[in-house]
Input
Amino acid sequence: MAATLAEKIIAHACQRDSVSPGQIVTASLDLLMMHDSGGPRRVASRLEQLGAKVWDPDRVVVVSDHFVPATDLESAEILALTRRWTQQAGVRHYDMLGICHVVLQEGGHVQPGMFCVGGDSHSPSGGAYGAFMIGVGATDITGALVTGELWLKVPQTVRVNWDGALADGVSAKDIMLYLCATLGMGNENQAFEYDGPAVRAMSMSERMVLCNMSAELGAETGMVSADEKTLAALVEAGRPFTGDIARWQSDSEAACLAEHHYDAGTLAPQIAAPHSPANSRAVTEYEPIHIDQGYIGACTGAKLSDLHMAAKVLKGRKIASNTRLLIAPASVAMTRQAAADGTLEILTEAGAIMLPTGCGACAGMGAGMYSAGEVGLSTTARNFKGRMGSAQAQVYLGSPYSVAAGAVKGYLCDPRELLAEPA
Amino acid sequence: MTADTTPDKPVDMRTTDLPPAAASALSRRGRAFVFGDNIDTDLLAPGPYMRESPDVLASHCLEAIDPDFASDVQRGDIVVGGKSFGIGSSREQAVQSLVVLGVGAIVATSFARIFYRNALNFGLPALTCPDLQAERGDDVEVRPQEGLVINHTTGKQYQCESIPPELMEIVNVGGLMPWLARKLAPDAKAAAAGGDASPGDPG
Output
């Protein structure tokens, strides 16, 4: 029977020949990820209450990224608790090394065909590696830790194809903001599978943005089936894939809920107005709104490729005197790479303020929060009211190109214009 | 919040025990509090207050769009929402805040996926009912088991998507923690009864 990638992975994870959308099934986990905020501090006492242990420590990865670096005693204690628990439980712990979705992929933990769960809503990021990965809350994580299983409703598959090629200054972030505006945020029980020449041309890091922001579509998850780039990335991560990626592709004749085709060549940079990613439209449709602070950060917007985009705009330029640009790289390894390849120098020469790696202001916890009345432009995934500080702040979302361009001009502007003129 | 910082003892983040899930699985009845589409987790549990105690965090629930909600809502009241209720983060505090405030059930046009899971895991019935017509203050009854919502003020009743039986089983025992306790120790039903193993651990 013809099946989509999502259906194939779920069927495999619950030892069935096939599954159909709408069925409620219990699937076995290949990988469970949790972070310091929804992880040990929440599950440790629950496991004690249940008198239960972790079902398989080798399949669990914990990442400290929300309360890092500790800025107060409470954060320090949460991080200490996380260290103690991971040591006792014998599970892998990435401590302050980067944002969970990014370090998981840097470590090659997510592999094609895997059924994975993460204690964070942006866990669909793992779908960039041809896996099925969903986000859940801390109680579901507790259950999954104990049983190694998770119930789910088999989602419908939605195919999203991007034909052609993205223009210079346009990125995966623009695609997702456009899709949020076009398809809305109510796509529950749907697995989005991204494909087409523009997606195949993307780096793994850009594919991750597509899958990551499937959370903003309200989708069950997002996925890009594995190809040579996926395999190469896993070799680089030190965990080469030993299976056959041909097995983990959607059958062309498999039934899906919808199939969309878009032309990447005609897509303009997108900006989401407050207070929703679905309030997105082309940057060309905006007035030159003054920006108090640009923020390049979070799992979706501060990876090495994002820093490269920002540097492309900032090279030889300066941040406008009436604004600020804050940059929190997504991982320590990426900061090191950005230092080695000259990117950091470009960013700091332009006047950017470098922040520590972590979820930062996107989680409403770290450095870079907005005050009432401030206007922000951010590469983060969500601009919900009050998320990054005051509920009276106005936060816009855009790609790293757009945020860097906005910081140079001091107002919302089209990054393609800056890229086209010599610095 | 004060954390116990004795070095050799894990920090207990709990400052209050959660009340056991309100009322019975059979019927929850109270006043309706009506909200629109896309009520997100940052409105339900604002990031800047996430470090506060569950009670303090709950006092800020939905304040950005309804400053009076947290002080007005009483045990058993029903939250009525539009599309994609609870969209956003996986933070359980979004559900927990409603539970702390005593909300008896949520009825919405549709639910964000993680929020829906979290609600059932906390023993809070979440019913999908696109047709429901209700205004703030209406006397609304929710019967999760039957998938029925009754607006006693207007005299109309609505059939909604019932919660699948395998998930209703979780709601009926008060949430995923008691359900897990039973699953792991079928003979220890006494231990799982009541709120002992509620998915509390707030903070």
